[in-house]
């Protein structure tokens, strides 16, 4: 392996961690819901899959879409995260409201899209750079899966300590992260 190839892989590992930190941060909040380990494992795999699909889609349309799409994806992701967090907050204060957004079904789909949509923009640039696409996609998926698991397991531990207030904290984390994506 040449120094250039090693440098490229190291760069991709750092990029994978940067992209996976969204999933980690948001998973801390989601992990505060009472979830079984099996569900946490499944959610991590779905997040990892979306961290492969989204940059792949970005790579495929890289030359056809302008740079402006990066701003739009951040806006959509931030809005989705804020909405999920707000719903968690409202359900924590009003016990009559059923949880609409759970990390299952359509809720899991929204969750996965919201934390992986920024990797679409990264895919746009990767498609034009000539990087080893298969290695990049596998690294993005593996790192985001592991970071999601870590975040959800840490969130689960915090839930045990905070009890009833954990949903408020989890919703606040999601709202804050959504606002950060929108305005930060």
UniProtKB/TrEMBL annotation:
GO cellular component: a single term: plasma membrane
GO MF assignments: manganese ion transmembrane transporter activity
Compartmental location: Cell membrane
Membrane-topology annotation of the record: Multi-pass membrane protein
InterPro entries the UniProt entry points to: Mntp/YtaF, Put_MntP
Predominant location: membrane
Highest taxon above the source species: Bacteria
Keywords, in A-Z order: Cell membrane, Ion transport, Manganese, Membrane, Transmembrane, Transmembrane helix, Transport
Coiled coil: none
Transmembrane stretches, start-end: 6-28, 40-60, 72-93, 105-127, 133-154, 161-183
Family: Belongs to the MntP (TC 9.B.29) family.
Function in brief: Probably functions as a manganese efflux pump.
Protein name as it appears in the record: Putative manganese efflux pump MntP
Source species taxonomy: Bacteria, Bacillati, Bacillota, Bacilli, Bacillales
